[in-house]
Amino acid sequence: MEVKNAVQAILDRRSIRKYKPEQLTDEQLKIILDAFDWAPTARNAQEVRAIVLQDAEMMKAFAADFEAFAAATGGKLFKNFYFDAPTLILLCGDAEFPYTAIDSGIAVENMAVAADSIGLGSVILGCIRQFMADEASAQWRAKFGIKDSEMFTIALAVGTPDCENPKGAARKEGKITFIK
Ligand SMILES: Cc1cc2nc3c(=O)[nH]c(=O)nc-3n(C[C@H](O)[C@H](O)[C@H](O)COP(=O)(O)O)c2cc1C
To answer: pLDDT grade, residue 134 (50/70/90)?
Structure first.
């Protein structure tokens, strides 16, 4: 397997929103989950957990419930929020630990970069956060094994892109301050 260097993968990675149906190989999934597992965590807590969904029927039902919730709560309309990617990875962690969200962000980007480096596509998904924090998703949190003491943080859809790599948006100026 060809593996792109990390800097190139960081620069090339774009959000992919169209996937081929083929599932990740065990080798591809292991690389992505190693990238998750070896992400740094505050105080080396390693509290963030990954839940790997590959049951297409379950994923569709989950997405349908989320869509209904978003429509009922007046949120943005979400159709097929994970874009039919064959794998959806949910991250969750200790709701009381102050760094759970930051650790999750680092881990999800590690996975996204790893995916790009081995020729896969991904998109980070935060849109289900409100749903996952609401009573409406209780049965899903139970199905996914998310404990009452944990919160869902972020998700990553992963698969083989069925599109060209999108062009990135222009970079905003003035985001970097030098003090020499
Ligand atoms: C924390 C976070 C949450 C995001 N949530 C969503 C989402 O719910 N749905 C989606 O389609 N894209 C989502 N994205 C992807 C962003 O829209 C995307 O990264 C941004 O537009 C820049 O495009 P690029 O990733 O192609 O460079 C999210 C990205 C981040 C970092």
So the answer is: very high
**Domains assigned to the chain:** 6-159 (3.40.109.10)
**pTM > 0.90: yes or no:** yes
| Nearest protein CA to atom 10 of ligand 1, as residue | 125
Burial 136-163 (b: 16+ CB within 10 A, else e): bbeebbeebebeeebbbbbbbbbbbbee
Going by C-alpha positions, the residue among 101, 121, 100 that lies closest to residue 111 is: 121
Residue nearest to atom 30 of ligand 1 (CA): 124
Q: Which residues line ligand 1 (CB under 6 A)?
A: 14-15, 123-127, 154, 166, 168
pLDDT tens by residue, 48-107:
999 999 999 999 999 999 999 999 998 777 789 999 999 999 999 999 999 999 999 999
DSSP symbol at 161: B
